[in-house]
Automatic annotation (TrEMBL):
Keywords per UniProt: Membrane, Transmembrane, Transmembrane helix
Name of the featured protein: ABC-2 family transporter protein
Keyword Cell cycle included in the entry's annotation: no
Organism encoding this protein: Clostridium collagenovorans DSM 3089
Membrane-spanning segments: 26-44, 70-89, 109-135, 147-172, 179-198, 218-237
Domain of life, per lineage: Bacteria
Statement: the UniProt record of this protein carries the keyword Oxidoreductase: no
């Protein structure tokens, strides 16, 4: 089944999303967010669910401060990066010939794959947020700002999707998953270590909620900047895929 919007093959999207919704993946993502919840609750005195959400995705003001927060934030981001890179490698380097026999053109394939990844990011955080809610029902029924919850949910999805697409963009040139991981982790450390107002314009800063406070920028600014990075990266991947013989 093919949608006319952006030349998307819905069967590819469905199969990739269903591939993510396995007992193993749901269990692993749930365990990750259970650990995030335990670390957050043990590190701070939390009175509202909004505080819990904020501190769950807090990040660090500098790499030398709050190392446990940096590890917690990195675990969330690098696990979804691993899932997305694994999907990209499987679909592009193992299944591409077979898939192209069904969809007939590369443009439909790459559009469908990129949409699949966005859907997976949504499900990833949906599972994560449901875990946080399930383990904190008392906080949920005290004070919750649904608009704030939605802002963080949207910010997390867009940031992780863009973060993962940058990994894919690098994969076109490096073609080594471990090296891509290492380089992105290195750049994350460097970006987190940078001080000054330039932080406001760094991609990493948009995904660390502490940076919003430290450098005084709001969610609208952050989401807008992420979307700029996203559009550039999205079309960069499409151009590279369409223009090079990568298989």
């Amino acid at each position: 089944m093919k949608s006319n919007f952006m030349n998307i093959n819905l069967n590819i999207v469905k199969n990739n999303v269903l591939g993510f919704i396995s007992k193993k993946n749901i269990f692993q993502v749930s365990i990750l967010f259970i650990l995030v919840n335990l670390i957050t609750l043990s590190s701070y005195e939390i009175n509202t669910f909004n505080e819990l959400l904020n501190l769950s995705f807090y990040g660090v003001p500098k790499i030398s401060e709050l190392p446990i927060e940096f590890l917690k934030w990195s675990a969330i981001q690098f696990f979804i990066l691993y899932i997305i890179l694994k999907l990209f490698y499987t679909e592009v380097y193992e299944k591409l010939h077979m898939t192209l026999l069904r969809v007939s053109d590369k443009k439909t394939f790459i559009n469908s794959l990129l949409v699949s990844m966005f859907c997976i990011c949504i499900l990833y955080y949906l599972i994560g947020f449901l875990v946080l809610i399930s383990f904190n029902l008392k906080l949920l029924f005290t004070t919750i700002n649904s608009i704030y919850l939605f802002k963080i949910f949207l910010l997390c999805i867009l940031f992780s999707y863009t973060f993962s697409l940058i990994g894919i963009l690098m994969f076109f040139f490096i073609k080594n998953e471990n090296l891509v991981f290492t380089l992105i982790f290195f750049f994350t450390i460097i970006s987190t270590s940078i001080e000054g107002n330039i932080n406001k314009y760094l991609l990493i800063s948009q995904g660390m909620l502490i940076k919003h406070i430290s450098y005084n920028f709001n969610y609208v600014f952050s989401i807008t900047l992420i979307l700029v990075f996203l559009v550039i990266t999205f079309y960069g991947i499409k151009s590279l895929f369409m223009g090079r013989d990568i298989y």
